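Fig. S4 source data, part A: sequence.
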Amino acid sequence: MLTETRAHDNGAAAGPGPGSSGPGSGFHRGIVSDRSVLEMSVAERTRLVHHVHERWEKIAHAVPHVKQTYNWDCGLACVLMVVRALGASAHHCDLRTLRQLCRTTSIWTVDLAYLLRRFGADVTFTTVTMGANPAYESESFYRDNLREDCERVDALFEGARANGISIERKSLSLDAIKAYAGGGEYLVILLVDKPKLGVKPRDAVVLPEGENNGRGGSDALAWLTGAAGKPAAWGARRGSESASTLANGAAPSRGYTGHYIVVCGYNPVDGEFLCRDPASHVRDLIITAENLEKARRAFGTDEDILLVRNEALDQRKVLAASREADTAAEGVAALLA
């Protein structure tokens, strides 16, 4: 359902939309406020640490780490992590499948919402801007593609309700994100400004430094069939970031660098989030609440968030999406022949 609410909330961990139930409350669901942790006894805090550790181990096992292939498909990699966690098999869904279904290298958050819904996921999209934001026309990250994307993106927003996607115009508070991520009932995909994340590996493994902000070219049909040998052009909005090891070797970005990550859990004891980053070689990344807040509220993100209910997918829809991708691939192959 397409709704507009106030462009801020009161910090409560409310559900994503009218008539839907958000994360519950209580220790058994891992939703404990930062303030309540400070008021705990040593014994209570110790029990909470063990509880969080057990939950994180379960989530870490359930949500795979998928590395992006190109410097624009971090969002697709995040969608793949989520649908795999919800039961889609590697046989029926991989990055090539998602490229066939999305059919653009200029990927916006609304594109990801449609992909998730295609596989039957229950998804809510919150953002402070309904449609393409004209304020980004002068931002270097968006400049090349914004005008040509506007019509397509605005049409996707308008058609969201008919396609079973709930879009709410609101700014979700950090406390709400903690509740969603910590409760275990949702997986969260965030659009962030990558340089502001300040991530660290869960097991203190050193990450490679530097970011790739290249705009290398490749044939659009070639990458759809898997024939492209190097990264394709960056998407205009909402997250196209690459690992430092991608091939075109451009200099690090000094401005906004849109990137998608999956938030799997929250640890109220240390104030840290467990995340999956498709641009990283490390599976489990820890991001402090402070850094996550800076990165997700940065100019360029529109505070885009996808809340995906952690429920098993209907395998009939997974199979239908897979077949649709195969049909699209056959059509592209025919064009290239």
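Fig. S4 source data, part B ends here. DSSP finds eleven helices and nine strands in the chain.
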